[in-house]
Amino acid sequence: MTNDATLSLEDELAHWPTDEAAALATQDRLRARVRTAQSGPEPGFAGTVVGVDVAYDDERDLVAAAAVALDGVTLAVVEEATAVGRVAFPYVPGLLAFREIPTVVDALRRLGRTPDLVVCDGYGLAHPRRFGLASHLGVLTGLPTIGVAKNPFTSRYELPGEERGASSPLLDGTADGRDEVVGRALRTQKGVKPVFVSVGHRIDLDRACAHTLHLSPRYRIPETTRAADALCRRALSEARAG
DNA sequence: GCGACAG
DNA sequence: ATCTTGTCGC
Length: 242
Known about the structure:
This protein is an alpha+beta fold. The protein has one domain (9-241): archaeoglobus fulgidus dsm 4304 fold (2-Layer Sandwich). The chain has six helices and eight strands, in the order H-H-E-E-E-H-E-H-E-E-E-E-H-H. The protein has helices at residues 9-14, 20-30, 96-109, 133-141, 205-214, 223-241, and strands spanning 48-57, 62-71, 77-86, 117-120, 145-149, 167-173, 179-186, 195-201. Helix 3 crosses helix 4. The longest helix has 19 residues, at 223-241. The protein binds two DNA strands through residues 53-58, 91-94, 96-97, 99-100, 120-123, 126-128, 132-133, 147, 149-154, 196. DNA repair enzyme involved in the repair of deaminated bases. Selectively cleaves double-stranded DNA at the second phosphodiester bond 3' to a deoxyinosine leaving behind the intact lesion on the nicked DNA. InterPro entries: Endonuclease-V. The record marks 91 as: Interaction with target DNA.
């Protein structure tokens, strides 16, 4: 891998970090490649939104990933793909991408189409170093990505209103001790705990939240993530069996 | 040093 | 993430 403007997914995967120091260095090197200026696809667009998720069996050193493509308008499942591999990195808060991305990329490659948007189970900019799983995946693949997490991690927030669609800013400390907005706590269902949305790559926060709402017509968690979660668990148990 | 800490 | 039964409620 090099430091010039080009980025080779192959090289990044071939030189995947194996320790924390190398992983931190990789985040520092790739962080500047995140693109926030683009507004990204509108919710309800004529295309596919792909949800990705991963399930683990650390005992057997197995990881299963799923990529599920949904119709951007109807949310109907149009295609599914899975991949199984070896655990590439231990779980370290803040370094989740190094554990999940290699197998997720495999699953995405087995998809017979290019996603118009990828929805990740985790963070984009709402990360201690502003480079969570969604941002990392976006930079490596060049695809628009967003992160929708179930917990705020290191960020703080005020509870948004009870209504579906209500939101409040997600705040996280910056290097010089100040607070900055890194995402949004978004209520996807009335009276239900909010989800934590942040920009991954090539999309803005307003659209990231609009997509999240559109993808969550009935449950707290987006249909993309629900579908990918169910599929990767299925893939993991099949890998265990045979 | 201690606690907190996406999945 | 994962270990795990029943149970309350729409």
